[in-house]
Write a structure and sequence with these properties.
Distance between the termini: 31 Å
Largest sheet: 5 strands, mixed
Shape: globular
Order of helices and strands: EHHEEEEEHHHHEEEEEH
Oligomer: single chain
Length: 230
């Protein structure tokens, strides 16, 4: 089953990195083409820019190739609950006010991802389950933990101001699905480190899905198909 509405909640394109060195392989074009194909088939695609692709904020309110560009959105679930959909960098004072420090933090994060690549290769070679060095390091740094907690509180407060029952955001690359007070807080994570997304079922139930679990199911199903009948 394919989604009728798709939200891209920012940092889809790394504009910061593209400013220093251009890198756009065919795989990136493939993703763009797939999204545009979904639009042509009738899906609604809403792009909420983040801090890394903030250049798109100049086009807020525009429609590019059928893709809607929005600052934020309100999504109503099948069960009637309303969710605020936003990126979340507006609550990050470092990103907003101290750009050089934000870029330094971005470099440190990229370095952690670089190390994580070698860790994952070693895990595969040794047949060990997936474990993220970068996510582990982030969880163990006290300042990072405190920042995540403060970010979540700020996002939930914004949900209250918008009179909604929950919020879906991104920005901090930390997938989460929890109840904070009377508000559902959902963070989609990212497509690089956690490889996560959020989906809505037909009854309005939300689920945080992980690519490694999904890909494992595909492998298991393929093995079942290849296994000779008894």
């Amino acid at each position: 089953c394919e989604a009728g509405t798709i939200y891209l909640i920012g940092d889809i394109v790394d504009g910061w990195r593209l400013k220093s060195s251009w890198y756009w392989p065919q795989a990136h074009n493939d993703v763009v083409q797939k999204m545009l194909r979904r639009v042509r088939k009738g899906a609604r695609v809403i792009y909420v820019p983040g801090n890394h692709d903030e250049f798109l904020r100049e086009y807020i309110g525009s429609n590019i190739g059928g893709v809607e560009i929005a600052e934020e959105a309100i999504h109503e679930l099948a069960d009637g609950r309303r969710l605020l959909v936003l990126h979340g960098d507006k609550f990050d004072t470092v990103v907003r006010n101290i750009k050089w420090l934000a870029h330094l933090g971005d470099w440190a994060y990229d370095f952690a991802i670089f190390i994580n690549g070698y860790v994952v290769q070693a895990q595969r070679f040794l047949g060990l389950p997936y474990w993220s060095f970068s996510a582990y390091a982030k969880q163990k740094v006290k300042t990072a933990v405190n920042f995540i907690s403060a970010f979540e509180d700020a996002v939930v407060a914004d949900a209250h101001r918008n009179n909604v029952q929950g919020v879906i955001c991104g920005h901090i690359h930390h997938p989460a699905f929890r109840r904070i007070g009377d508000t559902d807080y959902i963070n989609t994570g990212d497509w690089v480190e956690s490889c996560t997304a959020v989906v809505e079922h037909f009854d309005g139930r939300l689920e945080l899905i992980r690519w490694r679990d999904f890909s494992r199911d595909i492998v298991d199903q393929s093995r079942d198909l290849m296994r000779p009948a008894a």
